[in-house]
Design brief:
Number of domains: 2
Number of strands: 11
Number of helices: 10
Distance between the termini: 42 Å
Structural class: alpha+beta
Order of helices and strands: HEEEHEHHHEEEHHEHHEEHE
CATH class of the largest domain: Alpha Beta
CATH topology of the largest domain: Ribosomal Protein S5, domain 2
Length: about 325
Amino acid sequence: MTPDTSPRVSVDALKRNLSQARSEREFDYFAPAKINLRLKVTGRRDDGYHLLSMLNVSASLGDALAIRLKADPGVELQISPAGAIQGDPADNLICKAWNKFWREFSLDGAPCGLSVKLDKRIPIGGGLGGGSSDAGAVLRFLRDVFGPDIRNILGISAELFEQRITQVALKVGADVPYAYRGGTCWVGGIGELITEVVAEKSSCTGVFIVMPQVSVPTVEFYSFFRNERPIIEPSKDLVMEELASGTRAWSFKDLVENDFESEIVRFRPEVGDALNLAREFYPHTSSITGSGAAIFSIIQEEEGAFAEDFEHTMRQSGMMVHRVSLF
């Protein structure tokens, strides 16, 4: 194994510069939901990870994080509403982002601890990237608060610092590099290839996010998908290549597609029922986001009159409905 020769920053050096950062100030960060308007499976690596080509956009629906630094080491995580996230808090991606950041830049741990109050608003199991977005928000906080000191101590450029944070993000989770950046991006590989793109959205007046009364656990679904489609032929997403190169203009409504759709519907038939109902109103712009249970429907200007009936119908069917904007 090749030894890690990356520059390291000492905890003592950071502590000498922490007086302002370790004040009682509370930092507020927004962690937006992610919508996969487009998802193509373009291959599978030898280690089992699927290669994807995605058009990701950030939504105005998101989690809220209130962050403080504390003298005691470790991460203190308070989540509301109570019980919103199950499992060991140490496994939460917020904790992983904090720990992996300091392992990247320091040999002997963090110079302080972290306290996070997380207001969980993104539905879990919907494919909306909630946990990844929370981790991305923590990495942005670390960049903002500690970035100048770390760069100064190590003598590295802002560009190299960003590259190393992106490496940290990928170690936390495949969706975290995009979550750290956000916006409208073409995301490839297993999540590490990110290119900002511009798609025509002037006729898009909003998006509905609909959450059925089921969730799609990521690990279980990918295991199911591998069994259903054991062979994945390598391919290219020529549509996204055209969008990224600017050789052809594409609108959001013409990019909607999800290669996971048929398998998700077999895995959770309730998602298929929700999708069919959404397509009664928005047949061409409704799809599943990512590998989750959430449905999105893009509202075009000419279809705005359907919005009230759509929302009423979905709520009457017992589904959670959010009308959001994209950025």
